[in-house]
Amino acid sequence: MRIGFLGLGAIGAPMAAHLAKQHKLTVWNRTAARATEFAATHGAHAARTPREAAAGAEVVLTCLPTSREVAQLLDGPDGLEAGLGRGSLLIDCTSGDPGTSREIAQRLAPRGVAFVDAPVSGGVSGAEAGTLTVMVGGDEEAFSRARPVLSAFGKRIERLGPVGAGHAMKAVNNALLAVNLLAVGEALAALVKAGVSARTAVEVLNASSGRSFVSEALVPERVLTGRWPQTFRLALLDKDVGIARGFLRDIGVEGPLLELAGELLGQARAELGETADHVEAIRLIERRAGVEIRG
Ligand code: NDP
Question: Which of 8, 30, 261, 263 meets the CB 3.0–4.6 Å disulfide criterion with 13?
């Protein structure tokens, strides 16, 4: 298939690398050097504009920070919309917001372009391994066209409902990650301050009912070791919690835990900056508690 891919960021690049193995791939990235380097490494073509990346492609994928950038990319004579042909399919793998995606789908429908939101979970390592979970929103027909393309990097590929449903699922998932990250950080900081060995506390937690992905994977790999690799920016997790808060408000469900997590993450983002990794939120908890969770 002829496929276009826009957004070669931390997770977009390894996803696109899988597509390049199976399809004729054209890539575009805002910082052009990244696209040129990717194309040279993976045997793809680097487009100069979003329009060129979409021209002649049956399927186009986007993986940008938020839905706002996706909508902006559609605009203008060199924009994505100008390049998308009748009968093509746009798959948005951004962790975006349901409302903007519905607007995008409505905007493209009269041009005969189908749209699905298809955010992913599993992190950079999951993208590299080709084992991502993909949460799709869109009609059955568009989903059946998207599925074989998504299987290049996805293991569990699930349709959740109409356009926007994938984004809602993803935002709620990441909101749970955020709540858990903060809660585990607070709990361990308290235990360590009380004199419990950090490693023992984590091992006991992971053999008990309070365990989670954060305590089983992120804390041993990053917090206990004091290594803070940059894989998923705190700013992006903050954005996801904001989407989840909006989603709950829209459907009339109270979410006080989520509201608080959003406030705390916002503070962490302001203090640590736009490039900090999400797990570094625990660093802030450590700093405030006056302890380090290492072992
Ligand atoms: P990065 O910040 O690493 O990359 C962002 C990408 O978007 C880059 O290619 C960047 O281009 C491009 N970009 C940023 N702003 C614009 C703009 N205004 N116009 C055009 N392109 C732009 O993000 P990730 O790859 O980590 O994340 C991408 C999406 O995937 C996000 O929605 C995120 O929430 C989601 N996600 C990320 C995961 C992860 O582990 N990293 C896990 C699951 C989902 P440039 O190179 O020029 O900066």
Answer: 8
